[in-house]
Design a protein that fits this description.
By secondary structure, this protein is an alpha/beta fold. Helices cover 42% and strands 15% of the residues. The strands form 6 sheets. It has a 7-stranded parallel beta sheet with strand order 3-4-2-5-6-1-7, sandwiched between helices. Helix 2 packs parallel to helix 3. It binds adenosine-5'-diphosphate and zinc ion (ZN). The site of adenosine-5'-diphosphate has 13 residues, from helix 3. It catalyses: Couples ATP hydrolysis with the unwinding of duplex DNA by translocating in the 3'-5' direction.
Length: 624
Amino acid sequence: EQGKRKGLIKTPTAALKEYFGFSKFLDGQEEVISEIVSGKDGLVVMPTGGGKSLCFQIPALCFPGVTLVISPLIALMKDQVDALVTRGVSATLINSTLSWPEQKERLDGMRRGEFKLVYVAPERFRAESFLNALRDVEVSLFAIDEAHCLSQWGHDFRPDYLRLGKSLEKIGRPQCVALTATATPVVRNDIKNVLKLRQPFERVSGFSRPNLSLAITAVDKAAHKDERIRAIISAHKTGIIYCATRKKVDLVSETLASWGVKCISYHGGMSDSERVKAQEIFISKKVGIAVATNAFGMGIDRGDVRFVIHYEIPGSVEAYYQEAGRAGRDGEAAVCEMLFNYADTRTQEFFIDGANPSAAVIRQIYQYLLNEADDNHEVFRTLEDIAENADVKNTMAVGSGLTILARGGFIERFDVQGRRMRGTRLLKPDLLTRNLVLDESAIEEKDARDREKLKAMVEMCYSRSCRQQWILTYFGEEDTSPCGNCDMCRDRSAGDYRAPTAEERLMVRKALSGVARMSRRGANGWEGKFGKGRIIQMLAGSKSQEILTAKLDQLSTYGLLADKTTGYLNSLFRSLADEGLVITITGDYPLMTLSAKGERVMSGKEEFQLKWPGETAKPVGLDE
Ligand code: ADP
Ligand code: ZN
């Protein structure tokens, strides 16, 4: 049975032309469609907007029977069906908005072969009667859209999706294809296991965004971040600056305002109406720049976003690429720059701690809610109230704890876009007295997974390979090649990454000996005593108070590179750091010192290459 070719009633290319008016397939579509029409089960991963729908709609038109499409959102379903009907495809939907007689009518239509595509909500499969009705239907293909919804600890879990594996068995295991935009290996495995796909083909494609120029810039202080933002917004007028926290959104907005740059701010702490208003101003193009947390994005449909800046490292490559991907939706060139400082990973770790509260914390929240419930078994409290009264340190942990409780069926959160919660209501009074059962290992697993994701993001920041290629490989695409458009690709091709001239070699050895003078040799190698800024001041021969007070003007290396601007020296040190000749250890303050390789280069024992900074690297618009 498996893989058996069905008699096709049309070729994919013919269907593409006839119904959709397209002459060519998009990246990856053709391969996927030919696997499907050859009769194989499969897993298709494509980013949103990558053309996933056609991957099952075209085979549906080629197969003799009906294609069932499982789709989670009623509104989405209706849009797709309407669009198909407009194109002359016989499609319909079956969901809870229809009465049972109407559903039966459509099932009968299916049995008579009147439809090529039938969209079904996953909760239909709860009903045995529905499954029975499907038994006499010739189902050519079972297409499960948004298949990541069946992964329990994914971001969009829907319990009804879990039932689909059994439902497939009950209707005689038709050919099954799962589609999603979420590519992590865990989610992909969940999908294959729950649906018990039979020797499926697996195709990840369409993640490449050749018009995006990706860059990750190592920065060590806020002033350097501001300098980059200033340079980018003066070159490109429209874009989004993503910040990790609300506080940073306010801070960056104020900085822009001080430059006379108009922007909207957007974060989860604003009221609904404020956020709607801000979003509206941005989408209607009244203001070109948005400073926002990751709450900004769902439903942002503005094609002409020319830049996306990440003010801090995001929590995962998935989040990074999704946010960066909001640039250049119109296909024109756009830049994405992340301002990377290792210290910012602490913010993300704090989020992970909050997002995965321990079972003890969840019990604490639960107990508090139980005590506070009124006669109707309801409590209305804000997150802040609960955090304070239940003695939980972090309001994020409260929100996540409640989400976990909600999955157990006890509590419903009142929120907007699943992100914020103003009040909490206990549901199902009969369940109130039951004991809270928590799957502790699942919470721990999610915590570990989140940390892995952050680690991958940090690795990407330190990697010196093509950014685009690194990301595509992470998402599981094979046969990738360097994009030629990212910072790493440009560095290489610009040719300023090379071995030093004799003069440059001497300059680097001077710089490194300055670092050595301002470090100490500890038991485990070099230890820093000063930050990069102070070291540069010393090398440049600065007469600033800090230098004089610390008597750094008395070092033998003082003023050794006084012929260079501090801007140049800043770039040089960034390159030295990129090449691993100096390292910065971040404790309370970032302290710079020599690496083992740096020491060898300093003493002339090892050769090196470097990205050589341009001569005019004085920071833009900043007094030093
Ligand atoms: P997804 O479901 O992956 O989010 P869609 O299937 O909605 O993406 O497709 C995104 C857009 O690309 C749609 O506007 C669709 O019409 C268009 N599209 C899909 N396939 C092709 C094609 N072969 N040629 C041109 N445009 C296409
Ligand atoms: Zn590249």
